[in-house]
DNA sequence: TCATTATACTAACAAACGTTAGATATTTGA
DNA sequence: TCAAATATCTAACGTTTGTTAGTATAATGA
């Protein structure tokens, strides 16, 4: 699986931007990593800004694939216990966390969120918004099926997901320094267990 | 209350770094905002890096003052209900959130966390670590006083504080665009209420 | 008061920046 | 097979970068 020059530029830029930020990386640094002269880059991207834009756009499209479609939820939830459902979701999430590409995109969004309006939009809408909206529907359905206590599903969505975001932030910092992440991972498990205990219908 | 030139440089640098990041701001941009020539800056700071270092160090000292001393906890907790204690803490926290200086430092830490090891250390130790350690002691004492249910105090600390970090991140993005933040603020209140309901000792 | 110290200025530096023009080589499609 | 399109190269451009040297002015302390 060989990459085109454009893809190599994309990857090198993502790698460098996610460490030093957009302003901290030069065209020459990117092309040096790819193995071409700096002028050649302009055959593939209009300018430096266009590389970042391509990365952010690609991520936006990519992220929308990680959640199961809402139409299939009734079927899934009728055959799956809340515990299994959440733990499966956690497993998917963990996979995303451990993927180096996912870590780079997360870091890039963190670094650029206050310089790049598009990054803010992705964090707010795709990251916070979409996940919470999805979970709200999930918990609403679980309540209708009397599988969990009848709390406000929106509140449940936040109570479940927001700690996960913080744990993910902590995880990515530790991972960046190559430090041990088992504690954060066990905290994520503890969080899910705690949450399940709280919402359980006796 | 007039500022010295050094303080003006400090403030201008914090202001600009928190919007564009360290690499995105030039010495000339800082000195233009202060109203001096770029060479004059070097009478106050050794180089550009030293300004960032001064900002991060100042924040570290500053942040350690926001939590009440552990020695005074027994006295406070014996006369204060959990609900009042947490809501007072929330009020202090909100004040910090609404302070423009606090927002700038938060943004700076977010932007620089992967370029600057010191920023990572502050986020991990001061932000995550210290707050959770403090809350663990608080909940441990509340449990000993039989004021709340006997959950693992460390888990309670995380369940309480980690959603607050995520809400704070969301709050700061909205605030940066001048958008409405009442929804995030009400979510913070809902979180506290939910948490109190869960840990209440019947 | 006067020497010293601190702070501001002008001017310049070498290096790095993003980007372009134009020549050369490689790949593609009729 | 050969013209057209695409990708790479060398070389250079005008700016901006962080920083320094040297000089003038203002504040400080004996």
TrEMBL record, chains A, B:
Task: Alphabetically list the UniProt keywords.
Answer: DNA-binding, Repressor
Gene Ontology terms for molecular function: DNA binding
Keyword DNA-binding applies: yes
Which parts of the chain are coiled coil? none
Every copy of the HTH tetR-type domain together lies at 3-63
Highest taxon above the source species: Bacteria
* Protein name, as recorded: AcrR family transcriptional regulator
The keyword DNA-binding is assigned to this record: yes
Regions recorded as binding DNA: 26-45
Database matches in InterPro entries: Homeodomain-like_sf, HTH-type_Tx_Regulator, HTH_TetR
PANTHER family according to UniProt: ACREF/ENVCD OPERON REPRESSOR-RELATED, ACREF_ENVCD OPERON REPRESSOR-RELATED
